[in-house]
Design goal:
By secondary structure, this protein is an alpha+beta fold. Helices cover 34% and strands 18% of the residues. Helix 1 packs across helix 2 and helix 5 packs antiparallel against helix 8.
């Protein structure tokens, strides 16, 4: 079966040649790296079998975060890391998206638009948490908020949206993280949205208790939709992009989907592959010819897979629109999930244990520990023996020491 890399190598050169003037340099650089990945053009990695002493030459990977070929190990590492961080509480998946008219603007202002979805969704969640009757004690009491911040929180009007955007009451004990997706069921469509993984609870503002929400209820849905739209409009006004969006958009009901996801493990397995790949996986590519690409997709509100054939140029354009701006972080952490939070993860975990009455059982190590995934060494295709790294040859034919650099193409370390 053909792969995504095969499709890129088949149709990429002609696309880059014909669309060189309209395609940003960053996109051309990423596509060039992906097309050369593991072909030998970036150099080779030499392995030796410890059992039969055979040598194996493998083309060096590009190491690009958009590459569908060489990010599997990073996906598994991220999944293991996030699974270890899960608390023994119930979780929710909150998805924030934007109407079609706004997507057209975000397509032209990617970094600003993506950050607007992140910031607006995070402000919406913090604002709802501060007003939730289950998490009221997690919000900082009004008397401890500075007068300037307090005045912005209570004096902002609907006409002064820029001040309202920063008016949410601080809730430092409420932590969550978000993952950006730019595609939906059909990878040829541009559909930016952010999935927020939210634990069902928060730490009290004095950091002495864990406050839990019901297992099937997070916040009032209508209030979430309203706040998200208000905060997003404020971001667009701050960025000077409000005039580019039709006024009818703000009269629509915006979509914020909330779904209980149990202990969170299943949703992490769903999100992990999207963190380190773009748009479409190899298993969905059905055929790749000089005329076009055929792939499988599942329409909305349907469980049946269908085939769709597009030209090579359409496939390249569809893939390229999901390449992120240089240096843009696809995963954002908030509250105690952030690395610089004063409320540490260990503190939150300990408070959850106290809330559940598990302190002795888990803290003493009596409880069974979760199994950890250990990466397996590459195997010899001839005898099945373990392979060891013997050396690296770069794309200019120079022999590099085995400790000089990882299996990575030096020319594309900053390729996005």
């Amino acid at each position: 079966m053909p792969t995504v890399a095969d499709c890129l190598r088949q149709h990429g050169p002609s696309f880059l040649e014909s669309a060189a003037e309209t395609t940003p340099f960053q996109v051309r650089k990423v596509l060039s790296a992906l097309m050369r990945c593991r072909t030998g053009e970036l150099g080779n990695v030499i392995y030796g079998c410890r059992l039969c002493s055979r040598e194996h030459w493998v083309g060096r990977s590009c190491g690009n975060r958009h590459c569908p070929t060489c990010q599997h190990e990073l996906t598994q590492q991220w999944l293991q890391k996030q699974t270890d961080r899960l608390l023994p509480v119930h979780y929710f998946l909150v998805t924030c998206t934007v109407p079609q008219e706004v997507r057209d603007v975000i397509r032209s202002y990617r970094e600003e638009g993506f950050n607007a979805i992140f910031d607006s969704g995070a402000e919406m969640l913090r604002g709802c948490a501060a007003e939730s009757r289950y998490l009221q004690d997690a919000a900082v009491p009004p008397r401890t908020v500075t007068n300037a911040r307090k005045s912005r929180a209570v004096a902002g009007s609907e006409n002064d949206l820029s001040s309202n955007a920063d008016a949410a009451v601080p809730v430092p004990g409420f932590g969550f993280f978000g993952v950006l997706h730019t595609w939906g069921r059909d990878p040829m469509q541009f559909h930016p949205h952010v999935h927020f993984v939210v634990p069902g609870g928060a730490v009290s503002h004095d950091r002495t208790r864990w406050l839990a929400t019901p297992q099937n209820f997070l916040f009032v849905h209508a209030k979430m939709c309203s706040k998200y739209k208000t905060y997003f409009r404020a971001r667009m006004q701050q960025l000077g992009l409000l005039d580019k969006i039709p006024s009818s958009v703000w009269k629509k009901k915006w979509v914020v989907d909330v779904e209980p996801v149990g202990n969170g493990q299943a949703v992490l397995k769903y999100l992990a592959p999207y963190v380190y790949r773009v748009a479409i996986s190899d298993k969905r590519i059905l055929d790749c010819t000089a005329d076009g690409v055929t792939y499988a997709w599942k329409p909305s509100k349907s469980n049946r897979w269908r085939k769709r054939t597009v030209t090579g140029r359409e496939f390249m354009q569809g893939f390229a629109q999901h390449i992120l701006p240089h240096g843009f972080r696809k995963v954002h952490y908030y509250g105690w999930c952030a690395a610089n939070s004063r409320t540490t993860r260990d503190m939150v975990r300990w408070l959850v244990w106290l809330f559940l009455g598990w302190t002795y059982r888990l803290g003493s190590g009596i409880a069974p520990q979760p199994e950890r995934r250990t990466p397996q060494a590459p195997r010899c295709s001839h005898c099945g023996g373990d392979l060891e790294l013997k050396g690296v040859i770069d794309n200019k034919g120079r022999v590099l020491g085995r400790r000089s650099l990882p299996e990575h193409a030096t020319d594309y370390l900053d390729s996005g």
